[in-house]
Amino acid sequence: MGIATFIEKNYGSDYAYNTIYASWWFSSLWGILAILSIIGMIKGKMYKNLSLLTIHISFLIILSGALCTKLFAKQGYVLLTQNEVCAQMQTDEGIVPLPFEIKLDTFYVAFYAGTDAPSDYISHIQINDKNKKANLSGKVSMNNIFSYDSYRFYQSSFDNGGKRVALSVNSDPVGISLSYLGYALFAIGMIWNMFSRNNTFRQLLSHPLLKKSLVVGLFFIPTISFANIYTKDSLSVNTQQAEQFGKLWMLYEGRVMPVKTFANDFTLKLTGKKHFSYLNSEQFLMSWLFFAEKWQHMELFSIENPELQKELNVSERNRSSFADFYDEYGRYRLEKYWPELSKSGTRSRKLKEVEKLNDKIQLINMLHRGGLLQIYPYKIDNHVNWFSPTDNITGDNLHVKDSLFIRKSLLLYYEALQKGDEENATSILNSIDGFQTFHAKGILPSENHRNAELFYADIDFTSILFKINLTAGILSLLALFILSKNRKTGKIIFRTFYSLLIISFLIHTFSIALRTYIAGRLPFSNGFETMLIIAWCAMLFAIVFYKKINLVLPFGFLLSGCTLLVAHLGMMNPQITPLVPVLSSPLLSIHVSLIMLAYTLSGFIALTSLISIFLLLFSKKKNSENILLQLDKYKIYSQICLYPCVLLLGAGIFVGAVWANISWGRYWGWDPKEVWALITFLIYTLPIHQKKLQLFTNTFFFHVFGLVAFANILMTYFGVNYFLGGMHSYAGQGGFESFFVVFGIIIACLLGICLVAYRKYKYLKVLRFS
Question: How far apart are CA 573 and CA 404, in angstroms?
Answer without folding.
Answer: 37
